[in-house]
Amino acid sequence: MNPVxxxxxxxxxxxALSWRRHARIRALATQPAVDPLHPIFDAxxxxxxxxxxxxxxxxxxxxxxxxxxxxxxxxxxxxxxxxFDIRWYLADNPDVARADIEPLGHYLAHGWKEDxxxxxxxxxxxxxxxxxxxxxxxxxxxxxxxxxPHALPPVDERPSPAATWSSHYPHSRPYPYLEPQVMxxxxxxxxxxxxxxxxxxxxxxxxxxxxxxxxxxxLSPDVDYxxxxxxxxxxxxxxxxxxxxxxxxxxxxxxxxxxxxQPHHCLARYDIIVWCDANVxxxxxxxxxxxxxxxxxxxxxxxxHPLRRCLYHEAVICALxxxxxxxxxxxxxxxxxxxxxxxxxxxxxxxxxxCRPQRPEARAFxxxxxxxxxxxxxxxxxxxxxxxxxxxxxxxxxxxEGHNTRTHPATALLDHGTHDSDRYAGLASRHRPRRNIxxxxxxxxxxxxSPVVRQPS
Length: 457
Hints:
This protein is an alpha/beta fold. The chain has three domains: 3-122, no CATH class; 166-283 and 418-457, no CATH class; 287-409, no CATH class. The protein has 22 helices and twelve strands. Helix 17 runs antiparallel to helix 18 and helix 19 crosses helix 20.
């Protein structure tokens, strides 16, 4: 039976190893005289390992090396390909080892899509970043490399989150929230001490009830706090000035980015605007960092990405994880490549940044970023570094060199969602919801009276 015809009849991926359940296919596919069915099973390489490790089995395995691998070889740590290291894959993925899953089959079905490496010297997502067209065909990067081997891109050194991410609080790690009374006291103290005519604004945006409004644990009387939302009845805890979104788009995710990517239009009068994603909690005093930012004379301040330094690599991860349609992401990256945007140019994480909206360089940057966002992927992070490069802009490290919201003690990064809304419920009930707290912030009043901007989705 022709294995390819068998695959077409069953509509199965010829490289999924699912055919190993069929004895006739399995026998035919592994005869030495037949070309290997699977490009990541290198029979000669496998037999060389077997000759060294188990000389007695070498003769019998020659007639069916893949069957030997599937039956016992993988459990003995015999690798099917020079760039698929069985022992390393299982050590790097203890969940696969615990589940007693055959590693190569796992990698081909799931692992490469989850950015798991088959070998310490092969980084699949970076390989795809250098060959983005492979994303359109959903081709496993190791299969593509095995079919047409050539020079590999350099491998990223992955940091150890467990050792370095002291301020990261996913669902599996409970966040140490302040007691409601402590938060209420801090909100009252802020209202009493808040100055008029502040030159610094901190803003966030929540649409569709997607996130909890998390009150900063450190409130500075020199800062005005703003929430932009499509639910203006939201309680701002007597801290946030709650303002309606000034843009309407069918895609809520894009609409919510308008404030983030156009802060110079939304809060024009401030000297410094700090953007804070709704899942970031400011829990320490950042006044020294903002002072240094002002003294640096740079128009923009960002934090570096904690895992990657290449925009193309980030684009691959976004595509594999379904953050946006693959064809949109690939088209945007191919356009960057045509213009000469380099690999490993650096990568920001766009969940926490600051800008000086009075500066023309900042305004030009945000207009360019908004254009990238509206014309390309809905993942705003995929446009920022390109615009920085295109406009020749340097940026200030907002939390200090190498620090991001996962590592700095003055911030905490939580998962998105409303899983912790009960933590703030008592605080909200203490204050009557108001669109604006008493304020001399003329920009907020002007904004709330401005016409609604409508954009196509």
